Amino acid sequence: MSHDQVQGFISAATAVANPQNQPTETADEPKVPFQSPLRLTGTQEKKMLDHAFNRLKDLDWQTGRNQTLAPSWWMNMAPSANAMLSSQGLYAPDTWMGKRARADASFYNDVSWRPYTMQPDNIFLSSNIPIPVTRRICRQMIARAQNSFFGSDPWFSVDPAPVAERNVVPGQEGQNEDMADQIERFVRFKLKEANSKEDKKRAIARALILGECAVKTSYVVRDQIFNVEAQVLVDVEGSPVRDANGNHITPDDKWEDANDGMGTQVLSKDRMTVKPDAPVFQKMPLDRRQVLFEGAKSQVIYYKDFLCPLTAEDVQTADCCIHLYDKPVMEFVDLIVKRGMISDTTEERMNTARKMVSLIKTISEN
């Protein structure tokens, strides 16, 4: 999100999120818009944000991302200044990100960087014709690697542990095999639904082009909200009656005897909600959520959007790993509502929006 977008969002949302009768935050109140197991004071939260942004700045310089972010960053490289910049460790083409950017451009037959990143008086200043032999070899290796892993279908299988390596209860010899078969069929279905094969093929290609590839696995939920009109159970005041799980009750829901000796009936799906003596159903608009996809998905991260310390032994033990991406601010409010971090009420949404605006102010001024 750009600075102008942040300021525009703040101006538009402040009046709604923080009306005149809304109490302002105290100096030590955290600005996090939702609660989590990590509970910090306002001072601790500020220190954590400052550390995160300072670490981002350090890694930005360490990897050379700040020098190679523009698509044609090498146009700023003057051949006469190469020796001086290289001696100071500031020469962009020699940075970690600079080397990856040159390899990425070369694979797509773009060698416009050569006249600017070589030593003065190099041959590419007068003749810069590409000979894509290396690219052809790289493409062949990509095809061979992809065919090796995904040339046959199915490419994923689950096998039970050998009998010698597990304790088998007498009479249950075949249960492990049946469980492995069920897991295999379910996982194959989810991998196909997530288009996992194509994502992993892209990861192999990027790894062979750049030397490595960062892949991010996350739990993805794609859904859509729509309105329907349905009959729901209401109380004497006309307000909808919800079950123990917060869902509306319709005429199609089943009731059963509570076995309390008084003839009381309860809702079958929660066995807690008591049936009224004279149930009244009314038509009203309801919000419904349809899940289009839900499951784990691994996606290739653009190499200039991923930062990791170059001195770390591996990604798992690195003190900081950063993935930079764009996301509309208000999507976070909807996301934390769907995840149950806050209740879906006007008061909770307004309070969350107010804290989100305050947090954006802090970040935009950093």
Descriptive report:
This protein has 366 residues and is an alpha+beta fold. 39% of the residues lie in helices and 14% in strands. It is built from 11 helices and 6 strands. It has helices spanning 3-17, 42-63, 65-68, 82-87, 96-107, 114-117, 133-150, 175-193, 196-210, 329-338, 346-364, and strands spanning 215-234, 255-257, 265-267, 280-300, 306-307, 322-323. The strands form 3 sheets. Strands 1-4 form a two-stranded antiparallel sheet. Strands 2-3 form a two-stranded antiparallel ribbon. It has a two-stranded antiparallel ribbon with strand order 5-6. β2 (255-257) and β3 (265-267) form a beta hairpin. α1 (3-17) runs antiparallel to α11, α7 (133-150) runs antiparallel to α9 (196-210) and α10 (329-338) crosses α11. The longest helix has 22 residues, at 42-63. The chain is extended, with a radius of gyration of 29 Å. It starts with a helix and ends with a helix.
Distinctive features:
two-stranded antiparallel sheet; 366 residues; 39% helix; 11 helices; 6 strands; alpha+beta; two-stranded antiparallel ribbon; single chain
